[in-house]
Amino acid sequence: MVPQGGPSQRLNELLDSIRAEFDTETQRNVEYEGRITSHINEIEMIRGKVYALEQQHIQVKTKYEDEIARLQRELEARGGPAQSSQHHGPSQPPPPSIGHGPSNLFGGIMAGSAAQGGPGLAPPPQEPPQPQGMPPHLPQGPPGLNPAPGPPQHFGGYQPGPSVNGRSSGYPQPTASPGGRPRGPPPRGPPGPATPQQNTAAPYPGSPQVPRPTPPPNQHLASLPPANQVPLAQSNTLADLDIEQLPDNFKKEGQDWFAVFNPRTRRVLDVDLIHNLPHQSVVCCVRFSLDGRYVATGCNRSAQIYDVETGNLVAHLQDGSLPEDGDLYIRSVCFSPDGMYLATGAEDKVIRVWDIQSRTIKHQFTGHEQDIYSLDFARNGRIIASGSGDRSVRLWDLPSNKQVLHLSIEDGVTTVAISPDNRYVAAGSLDKSVRVWEVATGQLVVRLEGEVGHKDSVYSVAFAPAGDRLVSGSLDKTIKMWDLSPPSRMLQGGVPGGQCVRTFEGHKDFVLSVALTPHGDWVLSGSKDRGVQFWDPNTGVAQLMLQGHKNSVISVAPSPTGGIFATGSGDMRARIWR
């Protein structure tokens, strides 16, 4: 007889045993997953702490690098050894491009080695990475304001040059300002384009500061062959002439400036310094009012307006709503044709139109995504053109207070100009091209480039008074004149066209600014070689070279009434010349 419930009871016991083991393993898995989750949380916490330490280390490292750079600048300003990494003149690499990477172009040019930094003219070399940490903003005060007294220092860090024939070559070397106050430390450059610059104005190759073998006493430059028998480039390289050996009628010297006149062409110009206008930062731009009575300058955080006749400061324009600290370089200024307004373009991507009489902002245009490098007012007084590192040209209508045209290109825009008849807007770019559009339609009319075009970024464009020609200045050290007429040469549809009728060669370094005198008689240019040159537009021959600044000449502007021009420089000075 089989016992009741035997196999069934045994099966139930086995099932209970399996269930108990399953429950035990499940509990262990839950505990194991809990421990894994705890480990993961610990790892994430450790990763967060490591990241925070890394960021703290980067901040400390940046702080020490900035402090080291500041001490190096102080050492140089006191006459100590210069940094071995500094480049001089043409051997310096071109500045970083605008449009790719950081949003500043002129800084590299401004501070020394454009190799450090990012788009426009990139934060500079011998200065700590800029946009931050620039000198204090310019306080309102008389145009003759000088830096506070301190130990005597060489102007702009410049040291006296070697002597030639017993005289110190190059510029005179005063250690104090005309008012007798010692000069301050070398200027610091703004970030971005508008300008390649060296903090210490080192002699460039061929500069009058670099001694050359003394020619035999019977060699007279005045007897050199005429310009038409000399290669054009050679006849234009006025910086290679030794001022000590030039006859008196081919040179002129002031207290801290000199001019060299081309001995291979007939001298028809003269030059004199009228006013020296010290600033407390790099002067990025200069521009005259249409009646020639006033000149405006743009520097860190403010724009100034001076009376051309007296040199007195008549207006100091600064946006009081902005924070007091930090830098904000004014890259471009331009007067309205009626002289009532001044437009300023700055690193904060804002265009401000000031009512000069009330010193208040009448219009404010926003939309650009990077620094504004150039502005121009149309002669009709309605339209302002702007060019920016955001790779665009924009047109703004004052009566409606709106943007009316947005033109995009492949690279950063460094310079814009509106034709005298208000029909066209031209722009130069880091892509080596000059473009011209119709204002009314936004149609690209002509693109000036190719084999006859510039070999490096274009930093300045200007229309001839008649509007039929355009001049452009480039980091390839040349100036080009383009023929925009007859209309058959203005090809439609953006097809490259236009004709380069003349190339002006003779500058030793980047050409940063170009202009034409009111009647088109002369082409005027400013360069990183610290020189200003006047050129005959009909022949391409240089008439004179003026050395009156101790750093890059960032901006040149002729007076619309003729006979006077202004210059702005990285040496923290604007000057008015006759």
TrEMBL record:
* WD repeat segments: 330-364, 365-406, 413-447, 451-492, 504-536, 546-578
Keywords noted in UniProt: Repeat, Repressor, Transcription, Transcription regulation, WD repeat
Q: Which CDD domains does the record associate with it?
A: WD40 (cd00200)
Sorted alphabetically, which InterPro entries does this protein's record hold? Tscrpt_rep_Tup1_N (IPR013890), WD40/YVTN_repeat-like_dom_sf (IPR015943), WD40_PAC1 (IPR020472), WD40_repeat_CS (IPR019775), WD40_repeat_dom_sf (IPR036322), WD40_rpt (IPR001680)
For bias kind Pro residues, which ranges apply? 121-152, 183-194, 205-218
- The answer, when asked if Transcription is one of the entry's keywords, is yes
Biased-composition ranges for Polar residues? 165-176
Q: Does the keyword rRNA processing apply?
A: no
Region (Disordered): which ranges? 77-226
Q: Which residues form the Transcriptional repressor Tup1 N-terminal domain?
A: 10-78
The cross-references to PANTHER family, in alphabetical order and at most eight, read: TRANSCRIPTION INITIATION FACTOR TFIID (PTHR19879), TRANSCRIPTION INITIATION FACTOR TFIID SUBUNIT 5 (PTHR19879:SF9)
Mind telling me what this protein is named? Answer: Transcriptional repressor rco-1
